Amino acid sequence: MSIKPFLVEKYNIPAPRYTSYPTVPLWENNLTSPEWEEMVKIAFNSYGKKEGISLYIHLPFCESLCTYCGCTKRITKNHQVEEPYLSAVKSEWKKYLKLFEEIPKIAGIHLGGGTPTFFSPEALESLIKPILESAILLNDAELSFEGHPNNTTEAHLEMLASLGFDRVSYGIQDFDPEVQKAIHRIQPLERVQTATNNARKHGFTSVNFDLIYGLPFQTIETMKATFEQVAEMEPDRIAFYSYAHLPTAFPAQKSFEAHLPNQDEKRKLYEFGKKTLLNLGYLDVGMDHFAKPNDPLNQAKNKGKLHRNFMGYTTLPSKMLLGLGASSISDIHIAYAQNEKGISSYQNSLRESEWAITKGHMLTNEDLQVKTSILELICKGETLFPLSLWEKLSDQNLWNLKEMEWDGLVKLSGNRIKVTPSGIGLVRNICMQLDLRLIENSEKSVRFSKAI
Question: Domain end: 331, 362, 393, which one?
Fold first, then answer.
C-alpha cells in the first residue's frame, strides 16, 4: 500500500536496517579473542553441529569506484592482490576448523563484496574448493555470490556451478545512461542480458537483481524504462533498496548531491517501483525484498521460517553465520564479531596467526529477547514483546507506538504488535520503538540512513 505523504514527512528519519540487534554502532565491544573462541565452541556444539553453519566471505576489491556505494572496498586494477588476500581468508577458516570438535556441516556460502568476480575463476576455485573439502555440504545448502555484470564471465559461472553454486545476485541499480554516469557504474543492458542468460545456461536456479531508488537523475519515466528492461529478463528475486545518502562517511557521494530526488520525489519512486513489481507478479517478502510466488523466500515466509541476518532475508535455518575476510561480520546468535576493515591489517593479523577481530558483542538474555521480537516484526510482521521488557519502554516509545496505531501502521493488543500492510514500508521505525539499546543510548550520536 502507498505511504501517505504526511506519513513520509513524519517517519522519514534515520533508522537502523536491523541486520543485527544490537546494531553495530551500539555493540559493547566486550569480546576478547579467547572469549570469541569460547562463544564459537558453544554455538557450534549447541546448534552448529545440527543445523550446519553458513559462511559469508567478503571479497573487497573493485576495479572502479561506484560513487553511490557504501560497502567496504579497495579500488585497484592490480590483480596481484588476489593471492595474498585469499591466503589470509583460508588461514582464517583453518583457525575456525581448529575450534570444532568434528567436521562442520555447511548450510550456505555467500561471496560478497566489493566485487567477487574481480577475482579470476581459478582464484575463486582455489578458495572455495579447500573449504568444501574440509566440510560436509548439506543437501539443501545454498551457495550464492554477488556478480558484477561487466566482469562475470561464463568461465566464472561454469566454475562456480561445478562447485555447487546455483544462486547469483547482480548489482543492476538502474539502466538509465544518465543515472549510470552519475553513479559511475556503466553497464550496458546487453552485458546484463548475457550474464543472466549464462547463469541460467549453467544451471543457476535463482537470479536476483539489486535495484536502487533515490539515485541522482532518477524520475518515474527513467524508472519505468528500467523496470521494463528488468521485466524482460524475469529475475527470480528483486531487492529494491533505498539509496542511503551518507556523504560524511562516503565522500564520493558528494559528487552528485545536487541531483538527488527530493523527499517527495523519492517517495513516489518507491511507490511506483513497488506497484510495478507487484503488477509484474512479484510478492513483497518484506523490507526491500520481492520474489516470485513459488520462490523459497515466499515459501519460508508463508511457513513462518523466514530469517534475516547481515546478508538480508534468507531461508537458511542456521543460527551460526561466520564471516571471513576484511570487515566481515559473524553472527553466531549469542555473539557478534567484526573483522578489521583494513585489508593490510587483516592480512597481517592472519599472517601472524592472530584473529583479525576488532569489534564484538556478547548478547545478554535481554538482547536475545529483543532480537527475537525485532526479527519477528521484520520476518513475520507480528510479535509478542515480553511483558518484562514492555515495562522498560520509555513513555515516549509507548506514545510513539500508539501514534503508529492511529496512523494505521500497527495494531496493538496489550504487548502484542502486528504490522499492517501500510506499516510494512516503515517497519524499521516500528522496530526502533522496541530497541532498548537505542533507547538507553539516546544521547549517543549514531549515523543511520533514512527509513525511506
Answer: 362
Measured CA to CA, the distance from residue 392 to residue 407 in angstroms comes to 24
My answer on whether 348 and 391 are in the same domain is no
At position 214, the amino acid (one-letter code) is G
User: What is the structure's pLDDT at 312?
Assistant: 79
Which of 330, 362, 394 terminates a domain? The answer is: 362
Do 91 and 117 reside in the same domain of the chain? yes
Q: Are residues 324 and 380 in the same domain?
A: no
Neighbour-count burial for 41-80, b at 16+ CB within 10 Å, e otherwise: eebbeebbbebbbbbbbbbbbbeeebbbbeebbbeeeeee
Look at residue 333 in the predicted model and tell me its pLDDT: 94
- Which residues touch 315 (CB under 8 Å, ≥6 apart)? 142, 296, 297, 299, 300, 305, 306, 307
Q: Total structural domains in the chain?
A: 2
Region 32-41: mean pLDDT is 96
Helix and strand numbers, DSSP H then E, in the chain? 17, 19
Give the whole-angstrom CA distance, residue 439 versus residue 230.
41
pLDDT digits 0-9 by tens, 257-306: 999 999 889 989 988 999 999 999 999 988 889 999 999 999 998 888 88
Same domain, yes or no: 357 and 375: no
What tens digit of pLDDT does each residue of 68-94 get? 998 889 999 999 999 999 999 999 999
Question: Would you tell me how many other CB atoms lie within 10 Å of the CB of residue 293?
Answer: 10
In this structure, are strands 74-75 and 416-419 parallel, antiparallel, or unpaired?
Answer: unpaired
Q: Cβ(207)–Cβ(200) under 8 Å?
A: yes
pTM of the predicted protein model: 0.94
The range of the structural domain enclosing residue 391 comes to: 1-22+364-452
- Considering the domain architecture, whether residues 118 and 211 belong to the same structural domain is answered as yes
Helix pair 220-233, 189-201: axis angle to 10 deg: 30
